Amino acid sequence: MIDLTYGGKSPLTINNPVLLASGVAGFDGGPYADLLDLSKLGGIVTNPLTWRPRRAAQGPRVVPLPAGALIHTGLPNPGVRRAVKLYRARWSRSLAPIIAHVVATTPEDVASCVAELERCEAVVAVELGLHDQATAYDVELVLRSAQAATLLPLLVRLPLYGALELAPAAQDAGAGALVVAAPPRGTVRDPLSGQLAGGRIYGPWLKAQALRAVGQVARAVTLPVIGSGGIHSPDDARDFLEAGAVAVQVDTLLWTWPHAVEIIARNLGGLEMTRAAGALADEWEPGMGETMWKRRQWDKPHRPYDVRPLRPPDDLPE
């Protein structure tokens, strides 16, 4: 068992240190239920929720980059009240704990959102997503508002380039855990429309910056730290744990290679066999059965954002 949060009336513990980050698995992870075993995960963070409904962004939403992608969705959601009505039953049947992500717009809206989620027994915690220009004072206001409306554990997702500055403020204001970090923003030209597009940028390149931020924050606070950014292999995830994180959130790897997320969860969760000394190469590999093919995929360079999903050969034994 892993203590994902500290403090509060009911600190959150999970069975596996691998979670799905907000924005990649929908509101309940349902679209991926046939692509990986969700029960092997430590939790699913929902798509971002706001007090009022929001529509999808106009213009380019996904722009490929040489080593990743820029994504701008506009945070579409039906509003927290409607979302609870739509997904309460699915959340209660979820194979992994559900953590609701609330966009920290205003203290009043955050309090209203959290109060609505407090009444939903299927939600085990709330993650508050700060905007990139948030100050220490903003963190305090948002957390105090949320604490007044719920006894659920509160995670705070910090912006990458402000993580070290804001982490002590979040700890002092009563956060239960810190997520380091939200992907940074960027601007690129969309090759299809020719327009300049802004959004958050994802990719393996982000790992080095996120890993540094995790190490800095873990040394600056006593709260549990959850690492996020650029995780595309078990070794990537283990690097975050070595840097001081207690768990990790995997993001867009889920879109390009869903089963790889399960491989990471099995690896970090101790669900794989250990290799006996002197064993032959085909006697043990992570995942068992399909793993010789998978191991080759980890070892050779590939484009993680290729639209064509990687699949094992048809003649590979189960």
CATH superfamily label: Aldolase class I
Largest beta sheet: what is the strand line-up? 3-4-7-8-9-10-13-14
Q: State the CATH class.
A: Alpha Beta
Count of helical regions? 9
CATH architecture: Alpha-Beta Barrel
What percent of residues are in strands? Answer: 15-25%
Summarize the structure.
By secondary structure, the chain is α/β, with parallel strands linked by helices.
Task: Outline the structure in words.
- The chain has 318 residues and is α/β, with parallel strands linked by helices.
- The chain has one domain (2-277): TIM Barrel (Alpha-Beta Barrel), CATH 3.20.20.70.
- The protein has nine helices and 14 strands.
- Strands 3-4-7-8-9-10-13-14 form an eight-stranded parallel β-barrel, surrounded by six helices.
- Strand 11 (185-189) and strand 12 (196-202) form a beta hairpin.
- Helix 2 runs parallel beside helix 3 (136-149).
- It is globular.
- The model is unreliable at 287-296 and 301-318 (pLDDT under 50).
